Amino acid sequence: MEVKIGVQYAPRELVLESAQSPAEIERIVTDAVAGDGGTLSLTDEKGRRVIVPVDKVAYVEIAEASSRAVGFTVR
Q1: For residue 32, what is the domain's CATH number?
Q2: Which of 6, 9, 15, 50 would bridge 59 by S-S if both were Cys, CB 3.0 to 4.6 A apart?
Q3: Cross-referenced InterPro entries, in alphabetical order (predicted)?
Q4: Helix (H) / strand (E) containing 5
């Protein structure tokens, strides 16, 4: 899964690839936002952890990872 996190006052969004299902990621995000103003913590496929203060999260986009075309392709 590809997860994009928009952070307030940051010019770029955080993008990570996760092996978790969309439902698991949604539950983690929902629990973090419903909490007492803590942090949102996600781990990518390589084991790196991304931690963002919940009060700075603008949006979270969850999508299937798309394969990128390399070279000249015709669709």
Answers
A1: 2.30.30
A2: 6
A3: DUF3107
A4: strand 2-7
Which residue carries 């979270």 as its tokens?
60
Q: How many domains does the chain have?
A: 1
**C-alpha span between 47 and 59 (Å, rounded):** 23
The answer as to whether 24 is a domain residue is yes
Q: Reduce the secondary structure of 8-61 to three states and give it as a string.
A: CCCCCCEEEECCCCHHHHHHHHHHHHHCCCCEEEEECCCCCEEEEEHHHEEEEE
The amino acid that residue 5 corresponds to is I
pTM of the model: 0.79
34 by Cβ neighbours in 10 Å (0-12 / 13-18 / 19+) ranks as: exposed
